[in-house]
UniProtKB/TrEMBL annotation:
PANTHER family: LD41958P (PTHR46189), WD REPEAT AND FYVE DOMAIN-CONTAINING PROTEIN 1 (PTHR46189:SF2)
Listed InterPro entries: WD40/YVTN_repeat-like_dom_sf, WD40_PAC1, WD40_repeat_CS, WD40_repeat_dom_sf, WD40_rpt, WDFY1/WDFY2, WDFY1_FYVE, Znf_FYVE
The FYVE-type domain, residue ranges: 281-352
Role this protein plays: Positively regulates TLR3- and TLR4-mediated signaling pathways by bridging the interaction between TLR3 or TLR4 and TICAM1. Promotes TLR3/4 ligand-induced activation of transcription factors IRF3 and NF-kappa-B, as well as the production of IFN-beta and inflammatory cytokines.
Name under which the protein is recorded: WD repeat and FYVE domain-containing protein 1
One record GO biological process: positive regulation of toll-like receptor 3 signaling pathway
Keyword Zinc: yes
GO cellular component: early endosome
Annotated SMART domains: FYVE, WD40
SUPFAM superfamilies on file: FYVE/PHD zinc finger, WD40 repeat-like
Keyword annotations: Endosome, Metal-binding, Phosphoprotein, Repeat, WD repeat, Zinc, Zinc-finger
WD repeats: from-to residues: 20-51, 195-228, 238-279
Keyword Zinc: yes
Length: 410
């Protein structure tokens, strides 16, 4: 069922501690149990499982519960031992887990959605269960009564959710690539703003209430940091993945962002430096370097009797340029470009060798990752995906939690 991986910590790399196997289909969510050597998993095979580490070092299921529909999302509140499991049929089921993690009792069913549940958040202070789904809505329900408090609909599938418990603001990412900021009230809500910057569907969100930063990952392989607390609305673009970004976690203590992509890529970004904002792309009817017309500029093509050129953009200055004026490629990590992108020839000359020094580390998870969560206090991470395998990682060699929290790598 489960196998222990014995590997020595290598400098500056995640250490694979354990592989947990047993699900018969894709694992939708996996969460580390705080202060325990245990993992809770939920899968498309309709099972919820609680795995505890035995004396042998292996993880074995102490709870195995079968649901009526595939499990698509999960939230766990450790202090109250309450677990909420979203399903493909739109329902969310609440359970209470015993102190010894050997028994799970059904509490109630919430008819939250008409379609697959994509994300769940539980707020103990207000006793609200907030969720998003493929029925294009966010819903919030009262966990005391089980009744629906409110719903808000979007134009696309709602794919991910973050919630600020203090201000009652919800961030919802959707399949159109838009993020909506909502203020939730007891029976109503108001749209504060919408954030547009991604060219693909939003796959993951992370909210840091301390610095008031929102991070979004998308199917366009990129991450955007939105400075919600800053008055300028600053955004930073991070490009270092080669597949859709499936999960992100910001470690406020060490100012690092951990991100995982569908191809198994694990990136750790240094956010404790002054980064540059990527420029807006400029529009022009002719190259802003050599002034040759672009192919849609019929008048200039006719006047100069030249064939129009294709338009490109320099990633460093944002100018509209032709191919001949942007023959070079360069990485520019301070602007978030960790691999080589198109830059105009003059910007290429301005980039020094030290400017190309990477501001992130990249690692190979060696399995499909569709979901990740971290126990920051212990420097542990769990990943899972369509390959049915759950992996538990010691991230302290790369995230520096040992320095920040006093946790030392085993």
């Amino acid at each position: 069922m489960a196998a222990e991986i014995h590997s020595r910590p290598q400098s500056r790399r995640p250490v694979l501690l354990s592989k947990v196997e047993g699900h018969q289909d894709a694992v939708s969510a996996a969460l580390l149990i705080p202060k325990e050597d245990g993992v809770i998993t939920a899968g498309e095979d309709r099972t919820i499982r609680v795995w505890l580490k035995r004396d042998s070092g292996q993880y074995w299921p102490s709870i195995y519960h079968t649901m009526a529909s595939p499990c698509s999302a999960m939230a766990y509140h450790h202090d109250s031992r309450r677990i909420f499991v979203g399903q493909d049929n739109g329902a969310i089921m609440e359970f209470h887990i015993s102190e010894d993690f050997n028994k799970m009792n059904f509490v109630k069913t919430y008819p939250a959605h008409q379609n697959r549940v994509s994300a769940i958040t539980f707020c103990l202070a207000s006793e609200w269960l907030i969720s998003t789904g493929h029925d294009k809505c966010i819903s919030w329900m009262c966990t005391r009564s089980g009744s629906m408090l409110g719903r808000h609909y979007f134009t696309s599938w709602a794919s991910c959710l973050q919630y600020d418990h203090e201000s009652q603001h919800a961030f919802v990412g959707d399949y159109s690539g838009q993020i909506t900021l909502l203020k939730l009230e007891q029976n109503t809500c108001s749209v504060i703003t919408t954030l547009k910057g991604h060219e693909g569907s939003i796959t993951s969100l992370w909210w840091d209430p301390v610095q008031r930063l929102l991070f979004s990952g998308a199917s366009d392989h990129s991450i955007i940091m939105w400075d919600i607390g800053g008055r300028k609305g600053r955004t930073l673009l991070l490009q270092g993945h080669h597949d859709k970004v499936q999960a992100i976690c910001y470690i406020q203590l060490t100012r690092q962002l951990v991100s995982c992509s569908a191809d198994g890529g694990i990136a750790v970004w240094n956010m404790d430096i002054s980064r540059e904002e990527a420029p807006q792309w400029l529009e022009s009817d002719s190259c802003q370097k050599c002034e040759q017309p672009f192919f849609w500029n019929i008048k200039q093509m006719w006047d100069t009797k030249t064939i129009g050129l294709r338009q490109h953009h320099c990633r460093k200055c944002g100018q509209a340029v032709c191919g001949k004026c942007s023959t070079k490629r360069s990485s520019y990590p301070i602007m978030g470009f960790e691999f080589q992108v198109r830059v105009c020839d003059s910007c290429f000359e301005s980039i020094k060798d030290e400017d190309r020094t990477s501001l992130a580390t990249f690692h190979e998870g060696k399995h499909n990752i569709s979901h990740m969560s971290m126990d920051i206090s212990r420097g542990l991470m769990v990943t899972c995906g369509s390959d049915r395998i759950v992996k538990i990682w010691d991230m302290t060699p790369v995230v520096g939690c040992s320095l920040a929290t006093g946790f030392s790598s085993r």
